[in-house]
Predict the 3D structure of the following.
Amino acid sequence: MKILAIETSCDETAIALVEAKGGLLNPKFYILNSLVASQIKIHRPFGGVVPNLAKREHLKNLPLLFKNLKPKTQNLKPDIIAVTVGPGLEPALWTGINFAKNLKSQISNLKSNIIGINHLEGHLYSFLLEQKRVNFQFSISNFQNLFPAIALIISGGHTILIKMNSLVKYKKIGETRDDAAGEAFDKVARLLNLPYPGGPEIEKLAKKGNPNAIDFPRPMLNQKNYDFSFSGLKTSILYYLRDNKNVKIENVAASFQQATFDVLIKKTLRAAKEFNAKSIMISGGVASNFSLKKNLKLRIKNEGLKINLFVPEKKFCADNAVIIAIAGYINYLRKKNRRLTANGNLNI
Ligand code: KG4
Ligand code: ZN
């Protein structure tokens, strides 16, 4: 089955064409083409994403990406079109939805409908791309042995912990009560006069600093729930910078990063132990942080846990349309369809 996927929820315009087979018990993916037009440079002067600028750029980029998608693939006749309907910026989401609707009317052989996709499910299922690749085909060798699993979605807008019993049976067990992990990186970066998006900048700076230099708070670390909170941590950094002169910002970056990861890792591992998880999947922009992956791997090993860790490649942690195609395949097989209406607050 060929899936054309469109993603415009935030500041990346993305289109992908993906071939999928294997069904829910052994899904395999072959990426025919995947294009992403990043708007980072346009939003950077504003220190964050400006919704109307994002909409304007998506409108400009979508036809260009679609044109460039075609030459590489001889036969662009998708069986379904998967398009992100939320969560995200509604003016931006609408550009993708309307583009999908226009395409459907142009592609005459389209058998199936457009499938509306929850962007968070895209991140959730991105672990399916973390497999060994044979001829660019992604598949998991021991699929039956993956579950139960704990999935941690850490992006610019969300921090969600999910228990998965199978690919289609999953339940949210915790989430952030205020800022998302990525949002905390972006806000702390701003306090340190680093450009947007803050995550990669803080990671770079943190490499030169001491993660134990400053003892920033680890919010909700010892609470028995699976919720998170990062706004207090950000505020304590604000006060630290106000009250201390001549601070080494690389130490602030490293110590903030460590505090954030300590909480994310401790709660994820506690959930994994409680639910006897065989796998842990991390996804979303923050999951591309190498130090998080290294720390988590080490903690799994030190605690003697037999857990497979799945972390997608950087380009699949960040927003892209391949993950939307994957969620499209799974939703198609489940016969689950969402209304083709932008829903900025869609949850999982
Ligand atoms: O998943 P994503 O690309 O978009 C959303 O769906 O939100 O995540 C973007 C977020 C931003 O907040 C960005 O600062 C953060 O992911 N991020 C990182 C890193 N790369 C991106 N955070 C920490 N370390 C990184 N290397
Ligand atoms: Zn995302």
In short: The first strand starts at residue 2 and ends at 7.
